[in-house]
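SEQUENCE-TO-STRUCTURE ENTRY
===========================

Subject: a protein chain together with a token-level encoding of how that chain folds.

Sequence line: the amino acid chain in single-letter code, read from start to end.

Question of interest: how does this chain fold, as expressed in backbone structure tokens?
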Amino acid sequence: MSYDRIGNTRIRERCVRDGKLVGRKRSIFDKVNEIKSDIKDSIPEINDDKLIPLLSKIRTYYCNKKKGIPLGRRGQKGYRSLTQVETLVYDYMIKNNLNPSTTYRWFIATRLPQDIREKLAKGQIGQRKAMEISANRRRTKDSVNGLIMMEEIRNIIQKLDWSG
């Protein structure tokens, strides 16, 4: 499943009103901004660009609770536990009934370019369309980079003297 194509951009949030458990729908963008601000309040040294990799590690730890986080793919074997910052964020998520896997998906889905975010705020496009445009841009960018790389490889091969 592609995280860019989350069909439902609204989440159901449970809250207690007048002693009853009530579910209300809320925008993913609002929820992600609330989580970011709560994490920033408790741990101000975390940058926004470091938050998604941090959530990825927490998600991996949550899925492999007994083992921990894998050390790597290149010959390193074993697992490590969470760092102090990761532990603080993990405890915040557990305390607020946030599933680390779902929260990671929300953060991935809401990383939009600034111009698309402005159009979304003005109401010119919907949330689904914004996610679709963002995914298409990323895909096109990767495709262009691949074509440039292939052209450079062809030029290098042509420059090589194969006759010896």
Q: What stands out?
A: Residues 127-159 form the longest helix (33 residues).
